[in-house]
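INFO  loader      accepted 1 record
INFO  loader      residues=253
INFO  predictor   begin
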Amino acid sequence: MDLDLTGKNAVVTGGTRGIGRAIAEQLAAEGCNVALCARHKPAVDETVAALAGKGIKSWGGVADVAEGSALRAWVSQASQALGGLDIFVANVSALAQTMDEESWRRSLEIDIMGTVAGVEAAIPFLERSKAGAIVVVGTTGAVEIAGPPRPYASAKAALVPYVKALARNLAAKNIRANMVSPGNVYFKGGVWNVVEETNPEMFKLMLSRNPMGRMGTPAEVANAVVFLASPRAGFITGTNLIVDGALTQRVQF
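INFO  predictor   done
INFO  writer      dumping tokens
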């Protein structure tokens, strides 16, 4: 299926590794121009060069989403560099798992305020698009409890009504807003790869809880994100798409 993304412009936060990198690559494969940010310049430069090799316009910069004013400025610069903006993907997370005060603070700064700052900076540019789309990467931890309390899950949960409100309030401006919530996603250097190497028994236990017998891949999550960002999903807005291989047991009506 042609997703009608050729020539569109997208901004992806945290686009150099894992799910963010897969999203950037899939957008580029569909002919979409991509701007991305991360905290480490060598990774940004390498990713930008790789995307440019796909024949699209790519642009990158160093930005910490915890610094709201800097992120807003970067989103504006990226949108201008691309010549406009059609898609904004908020992907960065603190991934905070411990209950100390600093973990809570980082989750609030990165997962919540980093998303809000990026979205607010993107909206003026998306308003000029004929097919504006916002996609926020969430987690199944926001919709089903598994294990002890975690700042990561709670912060992501706060974004669910935020995205729904965006969808309702931006619909008249032809801007859609959706969320994609992955279950366990495995990639080298990722959270579950670290668990595999440092706590193999825990990894085996979590793997066994996946009904499909495996964890997901960044590309599988990216496919969902890119579809929701595309004009082919033109009447889908305000949804939280679970991509988890049937890991969660909740029934969604």
